[in-house]
Amino acid sequence: MSDMNFLERLLDGVAVEWRMLEDIVSFRRGSFPQPYGNSEWYDGEGSLPFVQVVDVLDGKFELKENTKQRISKLAQPKSVFVEEGTVIVTLQGTIGRVAVTQYDCYVDRTLAIFTNYISGINKKYFAYQLKSKFDIEKENARGSTLKTITKEEFSKFEIPIPCPDNPDRSLAIQAEIVRILDTFTALTAELTAELSDRQKQYNYYRDRLLTFGDEIPVMQLSQCCVTIADGDHQAPPQTNTGIPFITISNVSNSYQIDFTNTKFVSEAYYSELDDKRKARKNDILYTVVGSFGIPVFINENKKFTFQRHIAILRPNGNVIIPKYLYHVLRSSDFLKQAHVVAVGAAQKTITLTALNRMKVPVPPLAEQARIVAILDKFDTLTHSISEGLPREIALRHKQYEHYRDLLLSFPPPLTPP
């Protein structure tokens, strides 16, 4: 049977009724007034987690195991207490993250809480439908810098109820949909956990391989590189097309550049740049402001420019193998150095002077090559887009999205003639 008939087979000819969200469940915003600024309201015996937007995990229908803050029961009225097993959704900033709480908590007012369902509603089925609706509607959310969806807006979301005249049959269909989607979610979670374990293993062996005795010389970065520079300090004139302009937001925690959503500068602007600011194969970028300490190895000659929040290192191949230096820059010891030298309060910065003075172990070139060969293999397993677990996770996620859309796409409500 084709995918297009999958939901039809599950419904087996039963009717589907679309009801407004406000007609099937009660809802309210989280805690108010907020406890911010009153230290007496935090922690203490019997305190509960205080859940905010950042504590809702994306796509997992769960909260973080440990929230940043806990609030005393004395600080909040009993009416704002949220029990384990309650469906909540984020309404501001990162909109549309849905969770079924796995512990008792208090909830910030930037989230909505759903309780008192009418009979015949599977709570997890409702959560999946809610997530699906928000994924569509959040694109039209109000606000420029801080997107928001109000209670009044999402209360009109229409939720499909299969076989409304037979609650037992309806719940059985909803439960089967939940079972299938939960299975895909669990498979993805298992692969993600395995990837996390592989990453920890990789980090451990990388740090072991890069730990040397006193017989190995330690050199400053300036002694290992031909040049160390940063991007242009002036905001470049932007164009609609041309040479990609990379900001620190385009540098991901997976040590890669995301070129899918960049701004552009002209070819003329690029040609006027100093050669040391034009990235080429075997150069290394290194973030130095804000989200500092992320290296990116340049493995091809591709034209792009970048802001001053990113440094560029051009290794001296007679002293150090570029890929070896890249692995050193990712090591725990080098990151510790970065935290020591970073200055500033609101936005930590590693100055070029400090970067030049940071130190790396420099064994013989043959030993560097041996280490690179080992770490590159680990890197492929844990970070490659086309190989290993990340690829498997991406495929499973696409499969999940396919069946989610299939199972939640009920026949639309009939429009009156």
Describe the structure.
- The protein is elongated.
- The longest helix is centred in the middle third of the chain and has 43 residues, at 167-209.
- β5 (87-90) and β6 form a beta hairpin.
- It is 34% helix and 17% strand.
- It has 417 residues and is α+β, with helices and mostly antiparallel strands.
Describe the secondary-structure layout.
Blueprint: H1 6-11, E1 16-20, E2 26-29, E3 48-51, E4 69-71, E5 87-90, E6 98-100, E7 106-107, E8 111-115, H2 123-137, H3 151-154, E9 158-162, H4 167-209, E10 218-220, H5 221-224, E11 225-230, E12 238-239, E13 243-246, E14 263-265, H6 267-271, E15 284-287, E16 295-297, E17 305-306, E18 310-315, H7 322-329, H8 332-341, H9 352-357, E19 359-361, H10 365-383, H11 388-408
Parallel strand pairs: 3-7, 13-17
Antiparallel strand pairs: 1-9, 2-8, 3-4, 5-6, 5-8, 10-19, 11-18, 12-14, 13-14, 15-16, 15-18
Helix pairs in contact: 4-10, 4-11
Which key phrases capture this entry?
417 residues; alpha+beta; 4-stranded antiparallel β-sheet; elongated
The strand order across the widest sheet is 2-8-5-6
Note the overall shape.
elongated
What share of the residues does DSSP label as strand, in percent? Answer: 15-25%
Low-pLDDT residue spans: none
**Mean pLDDT score:** 85
Main sheet attributes: strand count, strand direction, barrel closure:
4 strands, antiparallel
Broad structural category: alpha+beta
Number of helices: 11
Q: What is Rg?
A: 26 Å
How many strands appear in the DSSP assignment? 19
Distance between the termini: 33 Å
* Strand/helix succession: HEEEEEEEEHHEHEHEEEEHEEEEHHHEHH
Helix proportion: 25-40%
